[in-house]
Design a protein that fits this description.
Number of strands: 20
Bound molecules: flavin-adenine dinucleotide
Helix content: 25-40%
Shape: elongated
Structural class: alpha+beta
Largest sheet: 8 strands, mixed
Distance between the termini: 24 Å
Order of helices and strands: EHEEHEEHEHEEHEEEEHHEEEEEHEEEH
Radius of gyration: 21 Å
Length: 379
């Protein structure tokens, strides 16, 4: 696509994960030249294809945060998109279960937060009510979230990509952004592709580079330590549950979360084929490496045994891993998504999306609308 004369873009998006693609689908059109640059050979090879594929309801995040707002809005928008365009999904519903008395108070606080955030239809269930829904789950209380579900994340990305292309956006794979220079009316972007490095100009530059988004911010000259943009990698591994145990649950089953651990707690999810898996754990790591550490198996088994007593050690097989791009370091308090037009840092036309961890998949359509609002201030 970059053969011959170098193009001049109105909008350039770095990264073809679910966020970059959703943003592209939202801002393309209006005869604008919109480009998506992706370093891999195709879209969605990183975090967007290495997650639980859960459509979250918006329970876990503090009121007023971008995570809460975009998750609640994204939940409704995703179901609408799925229905209208035939994207694979299932509104399974979900239980967040307490197995001990001390967890019940935490569930009540979570229920209250979820309701204030606008998560739909949340109710508290007793042990008997849990047994009616999920006879094989052991718990003394649970939040039932009927609007939680699962989605085919690849099909969702394909939908966003096709919509962006139909609106005239162009995507360049194997094209890695390696340099950004501020110009008086935009940015000069240096890209490395098969034929070597080349540069082009763009008015608006949108950083959707996932695990690499802090380094893109650094390329444009932002001091990421000062700005609080430095990312921590937090690995999440999954184990597949075999021996036909997948038939023993119908919904997603999550434990009471421990926010300090950096995840929602090792939970049981189902995919659209009905396969069951456990995960993800949450381990801060220094490198991007998607291997599953088999020695974590014991931890997985022990984490779920109290509420999924039917699981045995030899049901578990290592499956896959993803890495969360976290602004929150080990033991840190809650950090929200950064979605920001960096005009006040002397970077008009530069929009950062950093720390787009869970619930980023659910939030994607709402994040895209938010970014469209920022683009309208510029173009
Ligand atoms: C273990 C785990 C479980 C999760 N579970 C859920 C869930 O159940 N529900 C939910 O809603 N969310 C979940 N999430 C979060 C969700 O997966 C992410 O928020 C979302 O996928 C982020 O998408 P993205 O497009 O920002 O990042 P990515 O998918 O990582 O995309 C970024 C893209 O940028 C490209 N890129 C980077 N640098 C450059 C460069 N220099 N030049 C060109 N391209 C570049 C990368 O190659 C990549 O393709 C989970 C995340 C993890 C890790």
């Amino acid at each position: 696509m970059f053969g011959g004369a170098l193009p001049k873009a109105e909008i350039t998006i770095i990264g073809a994960g679910v966020i970059g693609l959703a943003v592209a689908a939202q801002v393309a059109g209006k005869d604008r030249a919109v480009y998506i640059l992706e370093q891999n050979e195709t879209f969605g090879k990183e975090t967007s294809s290495r997650n639980s594929e859960a459509i979250h309801a918006g329970i876990y995040y503090p009121g007023g945060s971008l995570k809460a707002e975009t998750c609640v809005a994204g939940n409704a928008q995703l179901y609408e998109l799925c229905q209208r365009y035939g994207i694979g999904h299932r509104k399974t519903g979900k239980l967040i279960v307490a197995t001990e008395e001390e967890g019940v108070g935490k569930l009540e606080a979570l229920l209250d937060q979820g309701r204030r955030n606008g998560a739909k239809g949340l109710t508290m269930l007793s042990a008997e009510e849990i047994k009616e829904l999920e006879p094989n789950v052991e718990a003394i209380a649970a939040i039932f979230s009927p609007s939680s579900g699962i989605i085919d994340s690849h099909a969702l990305m394909k939908y966003f990509l096709n919509r962006a292309k139909e609106e005239g956006a162009k995507v360049a794979y194997k094209s890695k952004v390696i340099g950004i220079e501020r110009l008086s009316n935009g940015y000069e972007v240096t890209v490395e592709n098969r034929s070597g490095p080349f540069t082009f100009k763009t008015e608006v530059l949108i950083n959707c580079a996932g695990l690499n988004s802090d380094r893109i911010a650094q390329l444009v000259g932002i001091d990421i330590d000062k700005a609080g943009y430095k990312l921590f990698y937090c690995k999440g591994e999954y184990f597949n549950v075999g021996n036909r145990k997948n038939r023993l649950i119908k919904r997603l089953i999550y434990p009471v979360p421990e926010p300090s651990t950096g995840g929602m707690g090792i939970h049981a999810t189902l995919d659209l084929e009905g396969r069951m898996r456990l995960g993800p754990n949450a381990r801060y790591v220094n490198e991007i490496d998607y291997k599953v550490d088999e020695s974590q198996k014991g931890l997985f088994y022990r984490s779920v045994k109290a509420f999924l007593p039917f699981i045995e050690d030899d049901d578990l097989e290592p499956e896959m891993a993803g890495i969360r791009p976290k602004l929150q370091g080990p033991g840190d308090d809650f950090r929200d998504f950064v979605i920001r037009h960096e005009q006040d840092r002397g970077l008009p036309g530069f929009i950062n999306l950093i720390g787009i961890e869970s619930p980023g998949l659910t939030s994607a359509p709402a994040i895209a609308k938010h970014v469209e609002g920022l683009v309208k201030e510029i173009l």
